[in-house]
Write a structure and sequence with these properties.
13 helices; eight-stranded mixed beta sheet; Archaeosine Trna-guanine Transglycosylase, Chain: A, domain 4; single chain; alpha/beta
Length: 363
């Protein structure tokens, strides 16, 4: 039995006018049912609420004002989910609507709560249909057409495969719409190998993502040991093969050195609230020996943050990494550059580390 997360972008869910592509969604739900019948667990991550709302409200183009985006999402979300629910119900499957925000994956307690809810739904053999809750928050509305969310969900549920369905056949070394000779990239073992490719951020009139956000999502998921396939959502054969785990479209291989889900959350989801500048000795210790960061190695403190917030760690203009700090900004201003004994004279109950190595990720 495998756990598969399948993500549908706006261009798959709705046509250019914002009307639901019923035949495409029917095909996707049919394949979800087939995987379910084979014993797999399937999670659907969907875009398209704003596009659906635009069509229902006869809006000629995607709004730019946040309040209009939120209103369009509010109009479209329920109708979009009802389509999924009815299509899955026709195959005897129960579904559940799950709306997440960026805060739900950036706050650790909410992150764990979301994981427990999704695990329970899967244990009940329910198909979660997930979208971002665009109606109440602003940060995520322009964030990658749900590609980031799909990667986070895959990590949350410990998926065996993430499939990103798009209106293209996969990732090309150039935009096939403007470069007729563009070549399909069939396999990616290291995202760094794509550095020379022309992976733009162009989107459909209704979406907000693009191929670059899918590559970032693939980088996140493969770092957690989850292979990723980018393929067509309108080609039934390609979609069927992808959900079955077969090679089709562009396949990103899981990384051998798996990163813990906590450190992936810290790297990609926890927002930074400030910056620490460290000396070269501290940088070497962090990079080469994997030690914790002590106050003695801190030479500069920027921003306003509290203990438990994430901070960026830099040295001589270079980003070293990101970690959860044990002190507030005001406390670190007082103790930066001091050895442990001196720190404890000023703050008797202070911990030894400014950032513990277990709560730090290298850049």
């Amino acid at each position: 039995m495998a756990t598969v997360v399948v993500k549908l972008g706006s261009s798959i869910v709705a046509d250019d006018s914002g009307d639901v592509r019923a035949d495409v969604l029917a095909g996707v739900c049919e394949q979800v049912a087939a995987r379910h019948a084979a014993g797999d667990d399937v999670v659907v991550v969907t875009s398209g609420a704003i596009a659906r709302g635009m069509a229902l409200m006869s809006l000629p183009m995607r709004p730019t004002a946040v309040e209009a985006l939120q209103a369009a999402s509010a109009v479209g979300q329920g109708k979009l989910y009802r389509t999924y629910d009815e299509l899955l119900q026709a195959h005897g499957l129960r579904s559940a609507q799950v709306l997440l925000t960026f805060f739900d994956v950036s706050a650790r307690t909410h992150y764990l709560n979301a994981r427990h809810t999704l695990e329970t739904l899967l244990r009940w053999r329910v198909v979660p249909v997930i979208n971002e809750n665009d109606t109440t928050t602003t940060d995520e509305i322009s964030f990658g057409d749900n590609d980031f969310l799909a990667a986070q969900v895959a990590i949350l549920v410990g998926a065996d495969l993430l499939v990103l369905l798009t209106d293209a056949g996969g990732l090309y070394d150039a935009d096939p719409r403007t470069a007729p000779g563009a070549r399909l990239v069939e396999e990616v073992t290291d995202v760094a190998d794509l550095a020379g490719y022309d992976i733009g951020v162009s989107t459909s009139p209704l979406g907000s993502g693009g191929m670059r956000s899918k590559v970032v999502a693939a980088e996140m998921a493969t770092a957690a040991g989850i292979p990723v396939t980018i393929t067509s959502g309108v080609d039934v054969e390609a979609m069927t093969r992808a959900l079955a785990g077969e090679a089709v479209g562009t396949r990103f291989h899981a990384q051998r050195s798996r990163v813990s889900s906590f450190k992936l959350w810290l790297r990609y989801a926890k927002p930074t609230q400030g910056r620490l500048t460290v000396d070269e000795g501290a940088e070497r210790a962090l990079r080469e020996r994997g030690t914790s960061l002590l106050p003695v190695g801190v030479v500069g403190v920027e921003g306003s943050f509290e203990a438990g917030d994430a901070v960026e760690v830099r040295c001589d203009g270079r980003t070293v990494g990101k970690g959860i700090v044990n002190y507030s900004a005001s406390e670190l201003q007082r103790i930066k550059g001091l050895k442990t004994e001196a720190v404890r004279e000023l703050l008797p109950r202070a911990t030894e580390e400014a950032v513990h190595r277990d709560y730090f990720v290298l850049d």
